[in-house]
Amino acid sequence: MLHIEMSRPHDGNSPFFPFGNPFRMIFPKGSYLSPRFLALLNSFEETLAERLKKLKPKDHGDILSLSWMSLAMQLLSETHTDIKTLVTDLQFPVSDWDDKWMDVYLDNSIKLLDICIAFSSELSRLNQGQLLLQCVLHVLDVSSTFPSKEQLMRAHSSISDWMQRIHLRSPKLENCAVILHELAESLHLPKIKNSAKGKVLMRAMYGVRIETIFVCSVFTAAFSGSAKPLVDLHVSDKFLWAEVFNELQGDVNGGISNLFSKEGITILKDLEAVETSVKHLYQMTSADGLTETDKLRNSVLDLAKCADGLSQGLDLLSKEVECYFQNVLTGRDAFLCNLRVGGTESEPQRQENSVEEQVVR
């Protein structure tokens, strides 16, 4: 697990980040915000806190259900949308941003699109596995007659294929942990010039980026089957959402680490339910397996129910990941268009070509 310490007393040792205290750069000592800007910032942070509260799991069994993951991705998209709204409310056009802010935004957005592509690839792989399960259910249709020996063998073969393929990982996931580490490092922003709008925007963007790293690290851990991608971020209590986030992160990351410490646990809860049912059927369809009609029928019905739940969960999560991808992409497009309107063309054009290459890759 990657640990990023975001605030600590000075102890004479070099900090993780080479630039000093990020919070002093977000709000330098003595900085002043007008009531209007302060209200906009407080509204953004309070909304973020409420979203994070919705993700607090009731128990460890809820942490990595597909429904929890879908909610996490949905709420993350909403927070990204809020940033766009905040920029408009601040009347702070992109052309007025500091060049370093622009570089950070453009670089991070490319990284997020890469992560979304990796997630979509993994979800597509899991969905393909559903085809094998549908084949099993079709062959073992016991509504009328008991399956023949040949049908049992065909079902057994399909189940074996599913069990071998389901724990394979998309190669695109391998780079996600590296990307998340880079995103965590970039949390440390460059100095902010004397701009109240800039201070509000940078503080709000910090919240978005913390939520993004948290959600994406949890997804990467779930899909990769490893706790290593988890990122432990310690947020200063200067932020209105800090306490909620720190508690949420502790519950979720701790719960995931506990799950990984148990052998034979499939980290995605919906997938684990299917795998349990599949293993039962695998034994029943083997040459020396049980062949009682009622037991086979019940096992087939149980698999059908679990597979249907998995299919619905995967479909919902796939839609939320696609929605988030489009959110990041359209936000980036708007950013580049605003820069062109402002007269800066060379760098945006290079970045625009870069994102097109990423999307089609």
Automatic annotation (TrEMBL):
Annotated compartments: Membrane
Pfam entry (one): ROH1-like
Family stated for the protein in its record: Belongs to the ROH1 family.
GO cellular component, one term: membrane
Record protein name field: UPF0496 protein 4-like isoform X1
InterPro entries: ROH1-like (IPR008511)
Domain of life: Eukaryota
UniProtKB keywords: Membrane, Transmembrane, Transmembrane helix
Membrane topology according to the record: Single-pass membrane protein
